Every structure is written in C-alpha cells, then in structure tokens.
Amino acid sequence: MDHEKIYTAMEKGHKGREPKSQHLDIRLIHEVHTVHYEIHELKLGDKWKKNKELKRFDPECLLAISYGAKFVLDYWVFLFEDKESCQLWHQGLNHIKYESEHSSYAVLVDKWIKKQFYSIACPESFTVTIKQMKPFVQTTLQYKVTSSILQEISEGELDLKMFVEAYRRLLNLSELAVARFSRYLSNNDRLSFNDFHRFMIECQGDEIAQNREEFSEFLRRYLREYDLTRDVPEPWVSVDEFIDYLYSNENSILDPENSKVVQDMTRPLAHYWIASSHNTFLT
C-alpha cells in the first residue's frame, strides 16, 4: 500500500487535513468494501461521484472503511497500487472483523483488559502504579475506591498479570456468585459438571441441557477458550468462568438466526422491518 496516497481527505469532517488518529479500533468498523462494489452492487454511485478527487482513481483500487460509534459514520478510504492488493486487504480486514465479532466473551474481556492496561502503563517498564490505577478504577470501572483499598490489593507497581488480578478482585464477582448460586457450588471455587448441568436445567431451563451428551459437547466447546486440558466428557468450571458464561453470547436469549442481515432488496416492502428514529418518523 502506498502510504503517500492514503486518501485522508475522505475521513469525514477532516477534509484537507491529516486524520485525528492513525489507529482504528477494529470493533468500530461497520463495513469494508471497495468503492467499485459500493458503486455497482450497493448502488451508492452518487455518494462517491460527488468527490472530484476520487474520480481520478480506479474504484477497484479504492478501499472504503466505514467506522464509528455514532449514527453518522466516518470513513477512511485507502488507495492501492493495484486491485489485487486492494482485494487482499478487503478480505483480510473482513476476516479480522468477523473474528472480532465472533470472539468468545472470555477473549473479548481479555482483549479489553489488555487494552486498558497498555493504555495507562508506563512504556518503559510496562507496569502500572497505584496512582495510575485509581483514575482507571473510578472513571472506566465507575467504582469509587480509596487509595488505601488499592494498596491492600497490590503494593508498588503492577504488571499485566497483577493488573488482571486486581481488576477481578475489585469487581468482586466471585463472591457475588457464591452468595447467589451457592447451592450449585459443591466447591467454593468451582462448579462440577453435574452442578453446572443442574443450574442449566433448574435456573435457565435451557433446552440443550435436556440431552446430557449434547450439553457435554456444548460445555467442552465453550471451555476450549480457557483450557484445552478440560476437553473431557464431564469438565468442571471455575467460578470466574461461570460468571463469564452468564455474560457470554452462549447464554443469550437471542436466536443467532435473527442477527443475520439479508441484503436482498427485491422483495415487497411488507416483507421488511424498518427501523426508524422518532425524528425520521415525523418527517
């Protein structure tokens, strides 16, 4: 990719200037398409034809990335030397985006904690002091804490492992699990296979727990993100893993089939559900 030809002017709101950031969080990416695809397949020709600069380049060599956390998305558009390179980046970014969207809850939490750690860690030592830890806890975790409590958790500087342990101790989710689900904890720090199976039947009413073999395969598949050595017929689950499960997609009531977006726009209007804001409705 020719870095001198990165088309920064298309980053909305920053025309003619360098983009505010040279880094883009993968989680903020909504779509990655070639401009050729957007013009000919999505029929968004008017969107791109308005820009005189873009018309000078082959649309098959332009890669458009829409991103953002707001209703109106921003764009980065990259110019490649040839369409083969553009296609490779298109495929690669979509693959990374897919992996990010379909990561397990455990992986997402692990990535998030690491991101928070490295954002505040001293670049020379890759450690975090108690002084740096306090704003993170109060602002990011929204948890009121005194310096004395932080000193009880850890003294001096924290490396990544110590930072993760401090994070978990502050959230105190393990004690909450013990208090709320004690009847499913034959051991205070873990659930046996039978404990978890009973929880799924009695509390969750989950259909997958009706078949013991299917539930075993389901649990083993879930635990592969944590520990491959527990790929056995009746694996146990730690309290932290149990808490992670409660927040994971595997425990969602949403049928994954309902998350699929169908791009077919050839059917009658009555076949579609249209999401509109209050302001859109009024207009």
Automatic annotation (TrEMBL):
Q: Which GO terms describe its cellular component?
A: ruffle membrane
Q: Where is the PLCG1 EF-hand domain?
A: 102-170
Q: What is this protein called?
A: Phosphoinositide phospholipase C
Name the domain of life this protein comes from. Answer: Eukaryota
* SUPFAM superfamilies in the record: EF-hand, PLC-like phosphodiesterases
GO terms under biological process: phosphatidylinositol metabolic process; phosphatidylinositol-mediated signaling; release of sequestered calcium ion into cytosol
**What is any Pfam family matched here?**
EF_HAND_1_PLCG
MF annotations from Gene Ontology? phosphatidylinositol-4,5-bisphosphate phospholipase C activity
Q: Which InterPro entries match?
A: EF-hand-dom_pair, EF-hand_PLCG1, PI-PLC_fam, PLC-like_Pdiesterase_TIM-brl, PLCG_EF-hand_2
Which ranges carry the PLCG EF-hand domain? Answer: 187-256
